[in-house]
């Protein structure tokens, strides 16, 4: 019954409210200077960035004596439940963050994003990288981080066995076979948590080059039982059956997979660029690169990889201090501040003209010129559909026939979309 | 009657808490179960019983229910049997027994999130303690992908749930055993009862009230389990450990279908009430005196 208790909190916004949710901020702007410093609340889920962000906030406060920033960090799961409920009354999260996809859609529907379109600092971001924060022609949030959700590979091991980055599926299988025959696990796959959600992206990108494929799935115009997904599942099965993932991949969590990779037992790690800095911290000797499995013949490959823009910064439409909140976003968007964040946290950013100093961030920077597409998983707006898609991968790795796994997942999708 | 009225002010604080913390959220939950509220939006529609119909038809809800029943049966069985055996062994007052009881009670006071994380490492198929131990004693064939195998994952988590609360149940049985008059046991022994007969004919009927509490408590606790499943498997692989509480959480906070989540909560409440009533009827303590 705890759920109902949460519901009563939500009622503040729900009970018979006729005013547009976006009106609260505009009704109560606080641009007038006051004697007392204004405190704005900043909530996010990246505890690992807290130290760097604290340093940045100190600089911001030194420059803006009349504004204090109070930060609250929630673990990402908790952020989905607790934090976003706090946004409803405007007392928390003057500046907040959002994931792209289902969460962004829900918050947008609730009208909790203040419209940032036309703010001068928007021009400091690479336009193509902040689209995930747009809806109905408005810039509602600004993705701050740039991530490539493709496997990391051990360049040293590839050099040792004279392997080149494969350009097609047969080449990928040959590379995996060579590694396996030399006693190296080709791919460390964290199947118990993030693996399916990360690795599905490059696996599907060329099997279904239509960037709206999952939008069509949710509209009922495409099905998981179609060739593009069954083929993707079959290729997952092929990798698993041939022993190219570590044994019992479905029981392996992220930390264990990272350990296999950083210790040199595995040649690829099916996560994403966000892990480069973490790997380097564990094993500074590692020479790392990024590669995406190309699941089609080379001449049919449309995309080279996957990118995601996330950690979307936004201003709460119910904030009592929208101007101060926007000032803080303006500060974060300055290239020198974004560089401080990027180099301090090991994450690339969407801000233009940022100087990356670390080797790992430079690896990612190389990818900005390649043909990548936005993470397909995040184009699924319904979380239950997303879960069904990922579940079908787990089912195949657990031994279910790809067609059957696809059909089971499609049944859940049909139910969700009311077909 | 007058006396009862005079007692009312003393009951008021408790009653108020009960109304605020249980009755009001339950009624609010029921109210939202009749809407399509997403949990965030300022507006919603009344959809009548639509959520009740769609939830009842939901494939994932049905899977969650089946998983929850498997989970509950495993936990209740393991917990009741193990805690009873431990209680029989440790009921006598001695320093050693008290120390062992404390040892078995320790998992109960740990947070279930911590327990979940610890056991995730224990269960890890390649680096975990459990498979490592099996290998070290020559039982490599028994090693499993404990949380990654959809056929056994729910049982693996249920075993942890049972382990974590065995101490609690053991204490209830210990109290029950200690309440049995010594004379009864001595008389039975003098009449030539062997240990099995002593247990079945003398102790078990007198332990029925404790057993009723253990089984009911274990049922409710296992039905409401959330933290362990959430931290250990997140409901996977492929929904094989999805239970009602994770279904409700996902519906409300991941899929933004708060109305539907409220409906599932109401189903959950009805189901757990029904099971508890049936259990109490089955284990009616007045049968002891029949």
Automatic annotation (TrEMBL), chain A:
Q: Does the keyword Nucleotide-binding apply?
A: no
Q: Which PANTHER family match?
A: ARABINOSE-BINDING PROTEIN-RELATED, OSMOPROTECTIVE COMPOUNDS-BINDING PROTEIN GGTB
Q: Where is the composition biased (Low complexity)?
A: 21-35
Xref: InterPro entries: Bact_solute-bd_prot1, SBP
Region (Disordered) location? 1-35
Entry's family note: Belongs to the bacterial solute-binding protein 1 family.
| Listed Gene3D superfamilies | Periplasmic binding protein-like II
Organism the protein comes from: Paenibacillus thermoaerophilus
Instruction: State the name under which the record lists this protein.
Output: ABC transporter substrate-binding protein
Q: Which UniProt keywords apply?
A: Transport
TrEMBL record, chain B:
Q: Which SUPFAM superfamilies match?
A: MetI-like (SSF161098)
Looking at the record, the residues that make up the ABC transmembrane type-1 domain are 65-279
| Keyword ATP-binding applies | no
Q: Which key words are in the record?
A: Cell membrane, Membrane, Transmembrane, Transmembrane helix, Transport
The UniProt entry lists the main location of this chain as: membrane
Q: Which domain of life is it from?
A: Bacteria
Q: Where in the cell is it found?
A: Cell membrane
Membrane topology label: Multi-pass membrane protein
Annotated TM spans: 7-32, 71-90, 102-123, 152-177, 198-220, 264-283
Q: Which family does the entry's similarity section mention?
A: Belongs to the binding-protein-dependent transport system permease family.
Q: Which PANTHER family match?
A: ABC TRANSPORTER PERMEASE PROTEIN, INNER MEMBRANE ABC TRANSPORTER PERMEASE PROTEIN YCJO
What is the name listed in the Swiss-Prot or TrEMBL entry for this protein? Carbohydrate ABC transporter permease
**Organism listed in the record:** Paenibacillus thermoaerophilus
Which lineage is the organism of this entry classified under, starting from the top rank?
A: Bacteria, Bacillati, Bacillota, Bacilli, Bacillales
